[in-house]
Amino acid sequence: MNDEASPASARGLLVARGWVQVTLLVLLAGFFVLGLLAYRTYAASPPIPDAVVDPSGRVVFTGADVREGQAVFLRNGLMSYGSVLGHGAYLGPDFTADYLRRAADHVLDHHGGALEGAERTARDFQENRYDERTGKLETSEAQARAFEHVRAHYGTFFGEPTTRWGLRPGAITDPAEIHQLTAFFAWTAWAASARRPGESYSYTNNWPPEPRVGNQPTAPMVLWSMLSLAALLGGIGLLFAAYGRWGERLGWRARDHARLTFRDEVELTPSQRATTWFFVTMAALFVVQTLVGGASQHYRAELTGFFGLDLARVLPFNLARTWHLQLAILWVATSYLAAGIFIAPLIARGEPRGQGPFVFALLGALVVVVTGSLAGELAGIHGWTTSTWLGNQGFEYLELGRVWQVLLVLGLTFWVGLLYRTLRPRLGREHAGNMPWLFFFSALAIPAFYAVGLLVHHEASFTANDFWRFWVVHLWVEDFLEIFTTVVVAYMFVLLGVVAERVAMLVVYLHVILYSVGGVIGTMHHLYFSGAPVEHMALGAFFSAAEVLPLTFLTVEAWSFLRLGATQEGSTSQPFLHRWAVMCLVAVGFWNFLGAGIFGFLINLPIVSYYEIGTALTSNHGHASMMGVYGMLAVGLALFALRYLTQRERWSDRLAALTFWSLNVGLAWMVFATLFPLGLLQLHQSVEHGYFEARALTAATSETRALVEWLRLPGDAVFIAGGAIPLLLLAVRAARFPSRGTTTELPDVLFTELDPAASEHEASAESEPPGTT
Amino acid sequence: MSNLPLLASAYAVFLALVAALFTVVSRWQRPTAAWPHTELPRFRAVLARTLLVLAGLVLFVTALRHGTEPTSLASLGAAALVVAAVAWRVAG
Ligand code: HEM
Ligand SMILES: [Fe+2]
Questions:
Q1: Which residues partner with A138 through β-bridges?
Q2: How many Å apart are CA A762 and CA A772, to the nearest integer?
Q3: What is the pLDDT of residue A15?
């Protein structure tokens, strides 16, 4: 829509048109390239042969076995136990590297041991004997025997009648399923070692590092690592230059010299009141998430026995980890849904009739999806059902059954519909590039990108699945959630009167552009070794370096979320209402820089990822960024809304403070006590001894590693007891003592302006937090 | 002898340096900075203290296990001095 086409009464675009054009251009260009890469993913991923035969023509395993093995792997929740091609969970081994090592050792023995057989072993694995015309892949005699040898090993491993590996007793006992599972692992190991036709490296860019089969870093890997570093340094230079030139006008700026006092009771619409129950749900899910997280951590510190209990009979590691991950997504999403619902009536200055019941219907649907999907995962992982529709789909981050996945997409879409219903009168009066529309579009992106996950399914190849899966994981967290966050926070500040709408819009556009330049194509930094062709690695490394740029900017004062200006100060003795909500934004800025920026880039270069993927350094980054940024923001949004939803005298700033500090101290402890040092140890081990060793279950029992795993216990305790539980108490308080609300109509803004002239001389100097007098 | 004492000492020193860095950065705060920028030093100060406590715990636990070996005592002792020095500066 443009100015001319808008209704006569519509408000024109508040910023220069160029902002909208550049934004659209960046998004279009990014997705055009991703489209090409999607095509290349299908065209150049490793083929699944119809049959794998030994030199005498005997079938070792078939393509059907491979596909069925993938399904066995997924529905039993094994991607939440170990990994394949580096992706999955980290307690168990990486089964690609595991198979490769076990098979290579066997082949090596067959060829006469390390001294005589090394060259022949490497040749056996590297030579690509797949014939496209016949669909047949020929293995060497030794490899065919190795398959049987490794299959016997997995038979014992997965058939283990006790819980000593952290899996349910007798997890997989059917010999046919063991055969299929082994075929799947063997196929990934083939893709990891057989050279691409015409190239000197394997389908997975020689991942995993395995000297026995001659897998070592490739030339493009080193080249693009270097270019990616150059992109980062160049980008930072450019940013410095731009900041020098336009710094005055970039970033957040406070409204000039206004003196404000904040309404601490506002009229609440029915739908806003309903969000109380969203926050109760969210906080309850958060508590459960941290508890099952604690359980899965316990398996790392002590594989068997949970303080004397045989926990894995009820809650095997892969179930705990599945719930931990799914609940993380669900509780954060619940908070965002609620925040959207809470803010929409403030934007529209009212809401249509019947909105309250609709919002409760949404909550009901959400509860059904949450309990249904968690129960499905339970049933799937315990082997009570093999249905991927109601049970366990088992893809990391998309573990939930397909029915629940579809329902969740519908629920999110319904949520956008509800927002639209409230916003409609306002949207009609605004240019499509103005704040209300930006809010709407950024909300729409959430279901849109979650829906891409429906392209991931059991029959598709692992590579294609990884490609689409990371559209959800990466494009959510590194682009569209980042954008939704910015829009919501910007709107909060506009409503609080501390930032002018135009300034907020400029910030939003700049964010969208900066996040999307790197973030869209940067998705490919998850596909370095998934079997996608080399251009995925090249473009992924280069563009994701640019993702770090907006994050480095967070250390510049005016850029961070915090530039609220001196507006709240000195005007009244009344404490600033949203002190702890805003503190959460302080934390978001901090963790965005440390957790996403530094810890993310730490593992971003292909040459680092090559040795590191699937170790605690990924976990380190994942926790510091996911909890530090989106978790902290979800908590901040909850505190913001709960403050209005709770009776004034029942609100407890002390509980809010406790939550805030415990979450941050607990997270910092978790990261610095365990995940970061453990990751460094593993990285060292991976380069020095081999990736297989770095991931081996037994390595976890070495003295140093055991100590490091135990060290996080105090931090986790603080996080759960001091962070998650008090938040739940706050939410429950809001439900028990709902705000009475005032009789005035819904305010345009959440503040009242005091005499603007009086403040001018005092507004600049003071820096005390409001209300500390 | 395991190399745990040496690693633990090095890591404790690293933690102390990060804590020191947080503190130094906070002292660069502009006097005119507005709330909630003024909260950032406090945020970093709490995290700095957390890291120092962690560093102390790492040294303590390692000393309990390896305190009898003279070389490990030396490295742990040296690291403890660094941690204590930073702690004294951060608190001061
Ligand atoms: C707030 C923003 C971010 C969040 C919430 C986030 C979250 C995550 C999570 C949960 C993972 C684990 C994925 C897995 O299990 O396979 C991950 C992996 C990774 N992230 Fe981020 N991330 C963020 C930003 C960044 C940034 C800015 C970079 C660097 C440019 C980055 C680089 C990586 C890399 C290289 C991996 C490992 C690739 C893989 O194993 O698939 N991330 N991230
Ligand atoms: Fe990513």
A1: A53
A2: 17
A3: 92
| Tally of domains in chain B | 1
**What is the token pair recorded at B26?**
């906070």
Q: Output the residue whose Cα is nearest ligand 1's atom 41.
A: A526
Q: Average pLDDT, whole number, for chain A? A: 90
B35 phi and psi, to 5 degrees?
-65, 145
Q: Break chain B down into helix, strand, coil percent, rounded to 5.
A: 85, 0, 15
Q: What is the pLDDT of residues A286-304, one digit of tens each?
A: 999 999 999 999 888 877 7
Beta bridge partners of A395: A398
Give alpha helix (H) positions in A646-741. 653-669, 676-688, 691-695, 703-711, 713-717, 725-736
Q: Answer yes or no: do A672 and B51 touch at CB < 8 A.
A: yes
pLDDT band for position A256 (cuts 50, 70, 90): low
Instruction: Decide: A622 in ligand 1 pocket, CB within 6 A.
Output: yes
Domain hosting B85: range is 4-91
Q: How far is CA B19 from CA A582, A671, A675, in A?
A: 24, 14, 18
3-state secondary structure A225-292: HHHHHHHHHHHHHHHHHHHHHHCCCCCCCCCCCCCEEECCCCCCCHHHHHHHHHHHHHHHHHHHHHHH
Of all ligands present, the nearest one to the C-alpha of A601 is 1
Pick B34's closest partner by Cβ from A566, A579, A711: A566
Q: Return residues with CB closer than 5 A to ligand 2 (ion).
A: A 474, 478
| Choice between A360 and A116, residue whose per-residue pLDDT is larger | A360
Assign A1 a pLDDT band (cuts: 50, 70, 90): very low
Distance CA(A550)–CA(A547), nearest Å, equals 7
Dist CA A700 CA A689 (whole Å): 15
H helices, E strands: number in chain A: 27, 10
- Regarding the beta carbon of A89 and ligand 1, being less than 6 Å apart is answered no
Beta strand A51-53 pairing with A136-138: parallel
Which backbone phi and psi does A460 adopt, to 5 degrees?
Answer: -75, 165
**Residues written for chain B:** 92
What's the pLDDT score for residue A258?
57
DSSP A378-426: HHHHTTS---TTTSEEEETTEEE-HHHHHHHHHHHHHHHHHHHHHHHHH
Could you read off the pLDDT of B20-66 as tens digits, one per residue? 999 888 877 766 666 666 778 889 999 999 999 999 999 999 999 88
Say what the pLDDT of residue A566 is: 43
pTM more than 0.80: yes
Q: Which of B89, B14, B88 is nearest to B58 (CA)?
A: B14
Look at residue A9 in the predicted model and tell me its pLDDT.
65
Digit-coded pLDDT (tens) for A97-154 = 999 999 999 999 999 988 889 999 999 999 999 999 999 999 999 999 999 999 999 9
CA angle A580, A575, A489 (to 5 degrees): 40
**C-alpha A197 chain-centroid distance:** 35
Roughly how many angstroms between the first and final C-alpha of chain A, as a whole number?
50
Rounded CA separation A626/A634 (Å): 11
Q: Cα of A463 to ligand 2 centre, how many Å?
A: 16
Give the number of the atom of ligand 1 that is nearest the alpha carbon of residue A613. 40
Mean pLDDT of A27-46: 97
Q: How far apart are CA A698 and CA A164, in angstroms?
A: 12
Q: What is d(CA A279, CA A721) in angstroms, rounded to the nearest whole number?
A: 18
The first and second tokens of residue A264, run together, are 């601490």
* Cβ–Cβ under 8 Å, residues A117 and A325: no
Residue B2 is nearest to which of A579, A587, A703, comparing CB atoms? A703
ipTM of the complex: 0.94
Three-class SS state of A108: helix
Give the contacts of A635 (CB within 8 A, at least 6 positions apart): A335, A584, A659, A660, A663, A727
